[in-house]
C-alpha cells in the first residue's frame, strides 16, 4: 500500500502543479470541484484503460506519452496565453462573472486532464503486472489526485490574489512550464 501511495503522489504532482496555474487566475467553488473531479477521474481511469489496452499498445504509447502530454499542456497554456493577450480570456476579469471568480471552460479542463494523465496508460499495465488490484489502485490514485488538485488550486488562488489582474497570464505561463517539466521528465 505504501508503494501504491508513492506512485499516486508521483502521478498527482503534475496535477498539483497544473492546478496551481489554474488557481492563479481565480476560480469559484464549482470550478474547484470540477477541476478536482476531472483530474481525479482521468488519473484513476487512465491506468484502467492502459491495463485494458494490453502490454503491446501500452508500451508503445508509454514511450510517447510524455511527449503527447507535454505537447497538449504547452498548447493549452499557449492558447490561454494567446486568449489573455487578446483580451478574450475565459476566466476572471472578462466580465463573465461579477464576483471575479474565474470559470475554466470545460473543453480546456478536459484537455488539460487528458494531457496530465496520458502517461498513466503505461502505469496501468505496470500495476497489472505487479498484481495490484486495479479498483484499489484507481481509487487511491484518484483520491490522491483530487486532494493534490484541490491543494494546488488553493495555493494558486492565494498567489493569484497577490498578482491581481495578471493572474490568468501567470497561470498560462505556469501551465506551459508544467508542460516543459513533463517533457523534460522533471514531473
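-> sequence recovered:
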Amino acid at each position: 500500500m505504501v508503494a501504491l501511495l508513492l506512485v499516486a503522489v508521483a502521478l498527482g504532482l503534475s496535477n498539483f502543479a497544473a492546478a496551481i496555474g489554474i488557481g492563479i487566475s481565480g476560480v469559484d467553488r464549482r470550478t474547484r470541484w470540477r477541476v478536482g473531479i476531472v483530474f481525479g477521474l482521468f488519473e484513476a481511469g487512465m491506468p484502467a484503460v492502459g491495463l485494458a489496452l494490453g502490454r503491446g499498445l501500452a508500451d508503445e504509447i508509454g514511450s510517447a506519452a510524455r511527449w503527447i502530454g507535454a505537447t497538449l499542456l504547452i498548447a493549452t497554456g499557449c492558447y490561454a496565453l494567446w486568449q489573455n493577450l487578446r483580451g478574450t480570456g475565459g476566466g476572471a476579469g472578462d466580465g463573465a462573472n461579477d464576483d471575479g471568480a474565474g470559470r475554466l471552460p470545460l473543453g480546456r479542463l478536459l484537455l488539460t486532464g487528458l494531457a496530465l494523465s496520458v502517461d498513466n496508460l503505461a502505469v496501468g499495465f505496470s500495476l497489472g503486472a505487479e498484481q495490484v488490484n486495479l479498483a484499489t489502485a484507481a481509487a487511491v490514485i484518484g483520491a490522491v489526485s483530487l486532494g493534490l488538485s484541490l491543494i494546488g488550486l488553493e495555493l494558486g488562488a492565494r498567489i493569484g490574489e497577490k498578482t491581481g489582474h495578471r493572474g490568468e497570464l501567470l497561470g498560462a505561463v505556469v501551465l506551459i512550464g508544467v508542460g516543459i517539466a513533463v517533457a523534460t521528465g522533471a514531473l
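Confidence is low (pLDDT under 50) at residues 90-101.
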